[in-house]
Amino acid sequence: MSVLLVGEGREYLVAHGETLETDLGVLEVPEDAAPGETLETHLGTEFDVRALRGPDLFEHFERTGAPMMPRDIGLIVGHTGIAAGDRVLDVGTGTGVLAGYLGRVGASVVTYEQREDFADVARENMALAGVEDAVDVRTGDATETLGELDDDAPFDVLTLDTADASELVGHAPDLLADGGFVAVYSPFVESSKEVVKTARDVGLSEIETLETIQREMDFDDRGSRPSTAGVGHTGYLTFARLV
Fold first, then answer.
1. How much is the pTM?
2. 139 - beta bridge partners?
3. Which pLDDT tens digits describe the chain residue by residue (243 residues)?
4. Contact at 8 Å (CB) between 216 and 227?
5. 101 shares its domain with 141
6. Radius of gyration of the chain (CA)
7. Nearest alpha carbon to residue 50 among 8, 7, 104
8. Domain count, the chain
9. 120: three-class secondary structure by DSSP
10. CB-based contacts of 21, cutoff 8 Å, min separation 6
């Protein structure tokens, strides 16, 4: 297991029993280091011990590409109601941030990643998150293993972050339990349009597409206003339901 060491404006992810070596000193992390404790380097620099939480996983997972942003994950959980005990089929694992979050809320996740090297990294990330027993990382093209997926079905939620999402949406009625949801992330609105068309063609309901935008606020002596640093657009989320 790993913990976060926070101090002097820095943050380090270190496993129990490992040694942290920085210009602030050397620190041996005890095997029983617990959140809330304060540890000191040999130079006397103090670090607070923190447990890993969802946002920390986003920051410290080894990345194999651009991971899904927490704001998008929040919308997926909120719109589909993913909860402990749900079964989720996730296609397009990537770094595994979404799968890791869902595993931590108690869902059982089967996630597909086409690249073996990316899948290996995702498995390591699931171990870091402590959800390796809840998240089954599989290597391969989900569209080519539909027979295997039929054996695993039904799923409560289908989450897709892949270029062939519209093809998989076409199989949603065979993969989802009654009342189950589809959630599709896409960086391009054209892909979202294809997903919506397919969802309509196969009889899904409650279809909607949202653009995710988040703006930070600036507060100073002159007043308060949205930041002018740029609009925080990440992508498009399409939701649909089988009823």
1. 0.86
2. 113
3. 788 899 988 988 888 888 989 999 999 899 888 899 999 999 999 999 998 888 888 888 989 888 889 899 999 999 999 999 999 999 999 999 999 999 999 999 999 999 999 999 999 999 988 899 999 999 999 988 888 887 888 999 999 999 999 999 999 999 999 999 999 999 999 999 999 999 999 999 999 999 998 888 999 999 999 888 777 888 999 999 998
4. yes
5. yes
6. 21
7. 7
8. 2
9. helix
10. none
Cβ-based neighbour number of residue 69 at 10 Å? 18
> What secondary structure letter does DSSP report for 33?
-
For residue 178, the domain's CATH number is 3.40.50.150
What would the two tokens of residue 137 be? 């990382």
Do 179 and 243 form a contact (C-beta atoms < 8 A)? yes
How far is Cα 135 from Cα 203, in angstroms, rounded to an integer? 29
Find the angle CA(208)-CA(155)-CA(185) to the nearest 5 degrees. Answer: 35
Residue keyed to tokens 């009342």: 179
Closest CA to 86 of 150, 170, 172, 179: 179
Strands 135-139 and 108-113: parallel
CATH code of the domain containing 14: 3.10.330.20
Q: Are 3 and 33 in contact, with CB atoms under 8 Å apart?
A: yes
Token reading at 25: 């000193």
Domain end position, chosen among 12, 28, 51 = 51
Whether residue 17 is found in the same domain as residue 93: no
